[in-house]
Amino acid sequence: MRSVPPSVLDTLGPRNVDLLEACARRIDGLHRRLVPYPHWYLDMIGVDPSCQGRGFCSRLVRPVLEHIDREAMPCYLDTSAEKNVAIYRRFGFEVVLEDKMPGTELRIFAMLRKAQTA
User: Fold this and answer.
1) Minimal CA–CA distance to 78: which of 36, 116, 28?
2) Does position 12 have pLDDT exceeding 70, yes or no?
3) How far is residue 38's CA from residue 9's CA, in Å, rounded to a whole number?
4) Could you give the CA distance from residue 87 to residue 93 in angstroms, rounded to a whole number?
5) Helix, strand or coil for residue 117?
C-alpha cells in the first residue's frame, strides 16, 4: 500500500483492497497491451507537494531519459493525476490511452515516449 499514489487511495479508499488489486491488474494489462515490445517503464516518481514547482521532477527524469535515449528505446508510464500529463508531455510523452477504472472515478493516463534518435 505504500507504493500506491495518494490520489488513488483518496479515490478508492484505503480499505478497498480488492478494488485496488483489480485496478492494478487492469493497469498492468493495459501496459502489456499498449507496449508489447521492448521498452523502459517509468514506474514511480514523486515529488513532495511542498517541493513541487522547483525543478525536482526534471532533475529526476532527465538523467533517466538521457540513458534511455542512448539506448534508442521507447519509454512508457502511466499516471492517475491529470495534472501530471502536462508535465510528462514536456519530456516528449504522449497520451496513448485514457481509461477509467471500472467501479471507480479513477482515470488512468497511459503515456508513451517514442524512441529518440540522434
Assistant:
1) 28
2) no
3) 31
4) 9
5) coil
- Please give the grid coordinates belonging to residue 106: 479513477
**pLDDT tens-digit map of 17-64:** 677 778 888 889 999 999 999 999 998 777 777 878 888 888 889 999
Which DSSP state fits 4?
S
- pLDDT of 14: 59
pLDDT band at 9 (very low <50, low <70, confident <90, very high): low
What is the tens place of the pLDDT at every residue in 65-109?
999 999 999 999 999 889 899 999 999 999 999 998 877 788 999
User: What is the DSSP code string of 56-92?
Assistant: HHHHHHHHHHHHHHHTT--EEEEES-HHHHHHHHTTT
Domains of the chain, earliest start first: 6-113 (3.40.630.30)
Label residues 10-35 b or e (16+ Cβ within 10 Å = b): ebbeeeeeebbebbeebbeebbeeeb
